[in-house]
């Protein structure tokens, strides 16, 4: 049958991440540093099993019934407590549970964008925002960035050139894909530009609690005096990615619109929310985050030491201070497409920078994203050794 597909579906093409994911599925021996997923070793399995058992034994009838759109009160209360302890002022804010924070991007685009509207992002950003933009016919405009994150002058320029800008998408802490954290000073400047051009900010924050040294940048939401920041977070990298649980924090007046724009897909699983509520009631989630951060710190340091050992001159890694990603910069003379194909053939999975580009045809970048969360130290070392060899050959040394 010839399906009469919608334009936005027909125009979709598989991302670089999807391409490599498919390859990894067919090749179990693949040295995979490409997929951005949490290590199952960090999941609090015993505690979640206890929380789940307790929920079914003591609250089973509620757990197996429909729940409210916004999410279960028990779970929202625990999230509120967690955020308040972290210094959020929630007086004018509402929390809405989500089936993963990725869903929040769709909500945001559905709520704010008409066809032809603009979403600003860093030049290299999480591809989920591109999917969200495409489905509503919005245009992504990339803003230049360096090793300290988004370029403030270019943000001002792009905002002035694009009066149809509805929001800026930003993952400001231990970003996917670059691992970069934007300074507080820059965050304040970003907020001022949003005020100047009157656009919203979608602050995507799945990684900030995974700090290696206990340093945390101030969430932009905490600087928000106007109600123009929608803050989205997720338990995927902390408790479980499979349970699909995230939430956003937004101004109370905005919440009904974000909720309505969820359509039919946004109702969260009640047993998941109640299990997480029990888990958070009986465990110290911040302590758990610190432990997960230490787990990834060790992996990150190992990865950086392998890059330093095996990669040729001219390549360098932006050292992550938290989270699960590192951005390895390579000389601009390297052909990324060609090198990526060779790496795959050599059994190494990483994602080239163009896989995250706001405009992959013209802004390819010269870097690879590496996720060091799940592979063992042996796999990380072997992958770096091979990758270093391929890069040396390309550079002729
Ligand atoms: C920056 C960023 N935002 C959102 C998500 C989606 O996370 P979730 O599992 O909560 O949907 C991811 C997942 O990798 C991510 O890296």
Given as residue ranges, the uncertain stretches (5+ residues, pLDDT < 50) are none
- Shape from CA axes? globular
CATH classification class of the largest domain: Alpha Beta
What is the total domain count? 2
Strand order of the largest sheet: 2-10-9-8-7-3-4
What does this structure look like?
This protein is of the alpha/beta class and 397 residues long. The chain folds into two domains: 7-43 and 287-395, Aspartate Aminotransferase, domain 1 (Alpha-Beta Complex); 45-285, Aspartate Aminotransferase, domain 2 (3-Layer(aba) Sandwich). It is 42% helix and 16% strand. The chain is built from 13 helices and 15 strands. It has helices at residues 7-10, 16-26, 45-63, 73-85, 102-112, 128-136, 152-161, 184-197, 255-260, 270-282, 285-310, 336-345, 377-395, and strands spanning 31-32, 93-98, 118-122, 139-143, 145-146, 149-150, 165-170, 200-204, 229-234, 246-251, 316-318, 325-329, 348-349, 351-352, 367-371. The protein has a seven-stranded mixed β-sheet with strand order 2-10-9-8-7-3-4, with helices on both faces. It has a four-stranded antiparallel β-sheet with strand order 11-12-15-14. It has a two-stranded parallel sheet with strand order 1-13. Strand 11 and strand 12 (325-329) form a beta hairpin. The longest helix is centred in the C-terminal third of the chain and has 26 residues, at 285-310. The radius of gyration is 21 Å and the shape is globular. The protein starts with 6 loop residues before the first helix and ends with a helix. The mean pLDDT is 95. The structure holds pyridoxal-5'-phosphate (PLP). Pyridoxal-5'-phosphate binds next to loops.
